[in-house]
Write a structure and sequence with these properties.
heterodimer; A: 101 residues; mainly alpha; elongated; B: 546 residues; Sodium/glucose cotransporter; 22 helices
């Protein structure tokens, strides 16, 4: 497998590019809001109703909140240090300045 | 026949003019003052959009006017099954959370503008790239045409009932104006207009979910009316029948897998300035899903309000509900929300299709040494042609044709999943395997969709072919998902065979570090000289390729 993959022959890139990883155990949490909304028997019923809404409707809208909470948590737990994020912002500002003139 | 409602028309025209001025002014917004004659500028808005702009842009892009009209129409006609739009737009963000940031990084390091650029470079296969480009264009075209269906539902409700050229004239003018400012301002135009679109949409929904249930006697009454409608004779009321559950889940999952393969979604992703922008948006975009869920229930409100669609056009159900329950001035605002909501995705889709044609057909096959300036010019003209094509499709063909094509669009765009999405994670897949898999998935998908009959409510066959997306075996499953499984199996088997036979698999134009590159890295290209007219892939390696 690895022998078939030809590494790119760009030495400049190889030397300057920082080696990073997106791997994190926190990422596994993302499976929850992918799997739960697809488990139809969980919500395919009328009762209990809330404010007149059958379960089918209110529970699926609750899953929206589940999705938001999970992605927000994973982002908070895996995001880079504030120094690194500031470096990214600086790079954006630098490019914007270059473009202006 | 009622006449044209002057109040509604005035409000829609005034807001349309405001948006038009913004569309032209957008060319100077977000650092766009200098030079638009570069695909990174015209086609990706300078790749500089922050969190807020990206939220509005992607929201305006993914949740189209047609969705806002068709989903409640589906709820009105078919009941609970129409609610699949909610789980679909919930699972999508955690699903692509880690994927889009890899695509963003590799595209910013290598200067990719389209998903096909990536495939070409990753798998060293102009053929597979061409297939990805063609699939993208074919899937996008009917989607653009459908935005016109959204506008025309509004026009009908305002009272334009003319047939022939006179009846189509407002539609033609609206799209012509859109085409011109998109030509002028590129992706910055829909990005700026999306602010207006979404503000109007949210305003409309908040008012609608407060005012309409109050008028109709509460939510219990609304769901009760829907339950009564769908109870007879053997329906399941407001939940899914037992046989519909797998179809519901697979349609939601398959649609979610397809959505970020669409070229217009990828255009929105690549326009972001930063990885963090995308990650934050994966948490913020579901707010639109909440809105979509409430919009879907407008279909039930229409049942409770005993709203009748105009003629046989089910898509007029939401405009007619607004017409019935709102005073004219607010109906005008709601109509503007939908009409402007059609302009934003139509603009982004035509830009995405233009980028694909320019990078992966024009530059690849027609003029290899095209300068960035020539690329931008070709893309701008292509975006005009694409929009004219969409207008022609709506004016001269039965709109049902576009609706059917758009349904099939989801099935065919899914066939680019192995090369575009899996390609971000592995280089093991062989270009020959990917091509074979695409062909197999395409054939399987189209065959299944062709075999699905359209049934009348009493289970008699209304139309023998292209009747829907649920492929009936013992139980109904989304055809697109089955087709992409066929595709994957063929990709794996053919790859294994080709690898065993030691067939050359080309040079990977990307490095492992590309996929995790951050904005401040030296490898991320400085703007505005990224493409520099090298083929997508390694600069200075052009001689090595092919």
């Amino acid at each position: 497998m690895s022998t078939a993959t030809t590494p790119p022959g760009d030495p400049a890139t190889e030397q300057v590019a920082p080696h990073r990883s997106d791997r994190s155990p926190w990422n596994w949490l993302l499976l929850i809001p992918i799997v739960v909304p697809l488990l139809v028997p969980l919500y395919n019923a009328s009762s209990p109703t809330i404010f007149g809404w059958p379960r089918f409707y209110w529970l699926q809208l609750v899953f929206v909140a589940l999705g938001v909470a999970t992605t927000a948590l994973v982002y908070r737990m895996t995001r880079r240090s504030s120094t690194e994020r500031r470096a990214a912002q600086d790079a954006i500002a630098r490019d914007a300045r270059n473009r202006e003139g | 026949m009622r006449g044209i409602n002057a109040v509604e028309l005035t409000i829609v025209v005034v807001l349309f003019l405001v948006v038009t001025v913004m569309g032209f002014a957008a060319s100077r917004w977000q650092g766009g003052g200098k030079d638009q004659m570069h695909l990174d500028e015209w086609g990706l808005g300078g790749r500089s959009f922050g969190s807020w702009i990206t939220w509005f842009l992607l929201g305006g892009d993914l949740y189209t006017a047609y969705t806002f009209v068709a989903v409640p129409a589906l709820m009105f006609g078919a009941g609970a099954a129409g609610f699949f739009a909610v789980p679909y737009t919930v699972v999508i963000y955690p699903l692509v959370f880690l994927v889009v940031i890899r695509l963003w990084s590799v595209s910013h390091v290598r200067g990719f503008v389209t998903p096909a650029d990536f495939v070409r470079s990753r798998f060293d296969s102009p053929t597979m790239a061409l297939l990805v480009a063609i699939t993208g264009i074919v899937a996008t075209m009917p989607y653009i045409a459908l935005q016109l269906v959204g506008i025309s539902a509004i026009l009908k409700s305002i009272g334009f009932s003319g047939t022939g050229l006179a009846g189509d004239l407002p539609l033609l003018i609206a799209f012509l104006v859109l085409a011109i400012y998109t030509y002028n301002s590129g992706l910055r135009a829909p990005a700026l207009i999306a602010f207006v679109k979404d503000s109007l949409i949210y305003l409309t929904i908040i008012v609608a979910v407060i005012v309409i249930p109050t008028k109709l006697g509460g939510w219990s009454h609304i769901f009760g009316a829907a339950a009564t409608k769908f109870a007879a004779p053997a329906g399941a009321g407001v939940v899914l029948p037992a046989t519909g559950q797998l179809g519901y889940a697979t349609l939601a999952l398959g649609s979610a897998l397809a959505l970020f393969l669409y070229p217009h979604s990828i255009t929105g992703v690549l326009a972001a300035s930063n990885r963090d922008v995308l990650k934050r948006n994966m948490s913020a975009l579901p707010i639109y899903s909440l809105a979509l869920g409430l919009i879907a229930l407008l279909g039930y409100m229409a049942i409770a309000a005993k709203t009748k669609p105009i003629g046989t056009d089910g898509n007029t159900i939401v405009p007619e509900l607004f017409q019935q329950t709102f005073p004219s001035w607010f109906a005008g605002i709601a109509f503007s929300a939908i009409a402007i909501g059609a302009l934003v995705p139509a603009a982004i889709m035509s830009i995405a299709a233009a980028n694909l044609f320019t990078r992966n057909v024009y530059k690849e096959y027609l003029k290899k040494d095209a300068t960035p300036r020539q690329e931008a010019r070709v893309a701008k003209i292509t975006s005009l042609v694409v929009k004219l094509g969409a207008v022609a499709a709506i004016l001269f063909l039965n709109p049902q044709f576009s609706i059917d094509l758009q349904l099939i669009g989801g099935v065919i765009i899914l066939q680019t999943l192995p090369s575009v999405a899996l390609g971000l994670y592995t280089r093991w897949l062989h270009r020959g395997g990917l091509i074979a898999g695409w062909v197999a998935g395409m054939v399987a998908g189209l065959w299944m969709v062709y075999e699905i009959p359209k049934l009348n409510p009493d289970k008699t066959v209304a139309r023998a072919h292209f009747g829907g997306l649920g492929f009936d075996t013992k139980t109904t499953v989304y055809a697109g998902l089955l087709a992409v499984l066929v595709n994957l199996v063929v990709v794996l088997v053919v790859t294994a065979i080709l690898r065993a036979m030691r067939v050359a698999d080309g040079v990977d134009g990307t490095a492992d570090t590309d996929y995790t590159a951050e904005r401040e890295d030296p490898t991320v290209r400085d703007l505005p000289d990224p493409l520099a007219s090298t083929p997508p892939g390694l600069a200075g390696q052009a001689g090595l390729r092919r």
